[in-house]
UniProtKB/TrEMBL annotation:
Listed SUPFAM superfamilies: P-loop containing nucleoside triphosphate hydrolases (SSF52540)
Keywords linked to the UniProt accession: ATP-binding, Helicase, Hydrolase, Nucleotide-binding
The name this protein goes by in its record: DNA 3'-5' helicase II
The keyword Transmembrane belongs to this UniProt entry's keyword annotation: no
Length: 503
């Protein structure tokens, strides 16, 4: 369907318009252009709902100058706003952000309660529809059942809703056990739409490799139809395939028997994403490159949140805080393992650094003393800063490395705040509005790379473990393949091949 047809559908009077939008086919351009036209034409407030902070940043760049007429936020933040306004009726505390973070499945539980609220009290949805008469939903295939139900409640109360989505990019599982609403079925949604259109022009590759764009759309069609991508023939020059096997003895390890093609592909590109499905492959890949390529951490800081909660629950007990610090450093880097440092570090905290030490044990005791003297987030921050200094000055700590560099230093920055919860909220808020982007070359999971694009992409671990014959694996594979604009290098397996490839 032509871009003009999609534009016409968006600008129609239809209450619900659904656009199927494959990766790289102009979804953000169409959504932002529609937002600009509506904001400038009607002067009404328009709401753009996304699922990631990265997407918020992209839409903000594309709608610069519209000011208060366009509001851009994640669906979770919108739900939190509703929950905060009606927290008493929902049986929740006023600090919704802290509650959702501390509560297991907090965001999902909150979405379920808000979905019930807007269903039971239409006046709530009507007030939101009055405030936001036009709503653009980005990447709607990632909506949970309750998130979808909330959007549909606004539609029923008169809001014009424009939905962009791609069922082939549905890579997040919807935990129905936490929800109250029926799941969103894309085919059903399309049937409910007053107008439907699909984008099919590969704009992402207009200034890159056009043949790669056509191949990527063909691969999407193959995966959607349940077929296999043929890696043996009809590949454009921009797609290369190498076969290598994982010979790591550890089940959580990743070591290629022949990595020459990976190193060669990395050298060819000054704009690169190295992608893998699993976290352990990503971390192992960082080691493959001598840790000179950073990991893309995205927006979330799960290890930091766990650390803050553990320090709060420790109630000033140094040994509990020490154990939380060891777990945090292990989650964000390597080298500060229990056997190398952690056990001794925790012992010092347990004994309150009472015994005289010499050599390396004395240095570990110095680290633990920060927590013994100040058993809270400030002591943790001082210890982590000291550890970073030791890495650069003491050969005994040379094996310590920080993979999640930003998350590690966010923990250090917490020491600048009197309250760790307030500090975490402020640091998160700064990251939200600064909207960091990946460096020129980075290693990432496929999940965190969703929404990004790069000149070159290397896809690692193209085997059955990463891409079995499952619907979510088909979507993950397509998301990975569609990040590349110029060059795509696939590392596949002959001994344990993915059933999604013909090798």
């Amino acid at each position: 369907m032509s871009d003009a047809s999609v534009t016409a559908a968006l600008h129609s009077t239809a209450p619900l318009v659904v656009i199927e939008a494959p990766a790289g086919c102009g979804k953000t351009h169409q959504g932002a252009a529609y937002a600009r036209d509506m904001a400038q034409g009607t002067r009404e407030r328009l709401l753009i709902i996304t699922h990631t902070h990265a997407a918020c940043g992209v839409f903000a760049d594309r709608t610069t100058g519209l000011g208060r007429h366009v509001e851009i936020r994640t669906i979770d933040s919108l739900i939190a706003q509703i929950g905060g306004a009606y927290h008493a009726g929902l049986g929740l505390p006023s600090d919704i952000a802290a509650w959702t973070r501390r509560t297991k499945h907090g965001h999902k539980i909150l979405a379920a309660r808000v979905a019930q609220l807007v269903a039971r009290y239409p006046i709530v949805a009507a007030a939101l529809a009055t405030r936001y008469p036009t709503i653009v939903c980005d990447e709607h295939q990632d909506s949970s059942a309750d998130q979808h139900a909330i959007v549909m409640a606004l539609l029923r109360q008169g809001a014009r809703v424009r939905i962009f989505g791609d069922p082939m990019q549905h890579i997040y599982e919807d935990d129905a056990a936490q929800g109250v609403s029926p799941p969103c079925d894309w085919a059903v949604l399309v049937g409910q739409a007053n107008a439907f259109a699909d984008l099919d022009t590969p704009h992402r590759w207009s200034d890159g490799c056009h043949a790669l764009g056509q191949w990527t759309l063909s691969a999407r069609a193959t995966l959607k139809a349940g077929g296999k991508i043929d890696l043996t023939r009809d590949l454009p020059a921009s797609v290369s395939v190498a076969f290598a096997e994982n010979i790591a003895r550890n089940a959580q390890g990743y070591q290629l028997n022949d990595a020459k093609s990976v190193y060669a592909a990395e050298k060819k590109s000054d704009s690169l994403l190295i992608l893998a499905r699993h976290n352990h492959v990503v971390r192992a890949c960082r080691g493959m490159f001598g840790r000179r390529l950073p990991m893309w951490e995205g927006h979330t800081r799960k290890a930091l949140e766990i650390l803050v909660d553990a320090v709060r629950d420790a109630n000033g007990a140094p040994v509990i805080i020490a154990a939380a610090v060891v777990a945090f450093v292990g989650a964000t880097g390597k080298g500060f393992s229990p056997s190398a440092f952690g056990n001794q570090f925790e012992q010092e905290a347990r004994e309150l650094c009472a015994k005289a030490r010499r050599g390396k044990p004395a240095t570990i005791q110095e680290l633990a003393k920060h927590i013994v003297d100040l058993p809270d987030h400030r002591g943790v921050a001082a210890m982590l800063r000291h550890l970073a200094e030791l890495k650069g000055s003491d050969s005994g700590f040379s094996d310590v490395a920080f993979d999640h560099h930003s998350e590690y230093w966010d923990a250090v920055r917490l020491g600048n705040f009197d309250d760790p919860e307030a500090g975490l909220a402020e640091i998160t808020n700064r990251r939200t509005y600064s909207r960091p982007s990946p460096p020129a070359k980075a290693i990432s999971t496929i999940h965190k790379a969703k929404g990004l694009e790069c000149r070159g992409v290397i896809l690692l671990a193209g085997d059955v473990k990463s891409f079995p014959e499952k619907p979510d694996a088909r979507c993950l594979l397509y998301v990975a393949l569609s990040r590349a604009k110029d060059r795509l290098h696939i590392v596949a397996s002959r001994t344990t091949p993915s059933p999604l490839f013909i090798v």
